[in-house]
Amino acid sequence: MLLGLGAALVAAVLFGTAAILQAIASRRLPPSSALSPRLALDLLREPTFLVALGLNVTGFGFHLVALRSIPLFLAQSGIAASLAVTALLAVKVFHDELGRRDWFAVAAVCLGLALMASSAGSVGNENASGGFVTGVFAALVTVALAGLAATRHHGVAATEALGVFAGFGFAGVGITARILPNLSPPALVTSPASYALLLSGGLAFGLYSLALQRGSVTGATAPMIVTQTVTPAFVGVLLLGDQVRSGWIAIAALGFVVTGVGAVVLARFESVTGQDA
């Protein structure tokens, strides 16, 4: 349990830092109206984006340890701490100010994580049927189509919508990482879950980059964090057998809600919008 939780928190620091760097790189490019290979190529020419990509890859390594050693609701909620990291770094990089409400939100995320860590039980079954993986692919296609529709708009609403869809993509990463049969190269190459994981990550990363071009770092990140936390939590408990300690369901639910509320409050931290990196 301690190994998984520690890995989740390290991943949160890396992801939160990467969000700031990705925002800087994305805003150096002309606004893009759609997901395209050109957007990916332009981003890959930005050294700051490459650093962000490296941090995300390293963070995913730690996150993978968490996903396979603690329940999904805790592993994914641990990543909610990256929103607090992003907000704190935005103060330094973009010269924003955190108000009293924002500090309470950061504290709420930390408190919620502590409650969920205390209530987490055993990890569920990692095996999943072929129909489950097919359902993941179908969900990703739906998210991609919805994301493409959202790219036709700009402003706060478009930022939040793209953040939500990116969150569904990252939720797919967490879910498929859990159901990988094992991490040996032969198993990874032959498992459909591996390709669902790659598709989820690529889709989420593209949608998140587009969201960052349209609004604040935290405005794009907060709905993404909420979606990527809530979705795997329900899937883990309802479909993959994740457990809560006996008699601790109310504490786990409270921790989950407190963490979510903290993330939603931080979503109102909009002063990064319009700042030059």
Tags for this model:
disordered C terminus; 277 residues; globular; mainly alpha
Description:
It is built from twelve helices and no strands. About 75% of the residues lie in helices and about 0% in strands. The N and C termini lie far apart (about 40 Å). The protein has helices at about 1-25, 35-45, 45-65, 70-80, 80-95, 100-120, 130-150, 155-180, 185-190, 190-215, 215-240, 250-265. The protein is globular and about 50 Å long. It has about 280 residues and is an all-alpha fold.
Structural class: mainly alpha
Strand content: under 5%
Helix content: over 70%
What is the CA-atom radius of gyration, in angstroms? 18 Å
Give the helices and strands as they follow along the chain.
Answer: HHHHHHHHHHHH
Number of helices, where a helix is a run of at least 4 consecutive DSSP H or I residues: 12
Main sheet specs: none
Q: What's the average pLDDT?
A: 83
State the distance separating the first and last CA atoms.
39 Å
Would you identify the regions where 5 or more consecutive residues have pLDDT less than 50? 270-277
Number of strands: 0
Tertiary shape:
globular
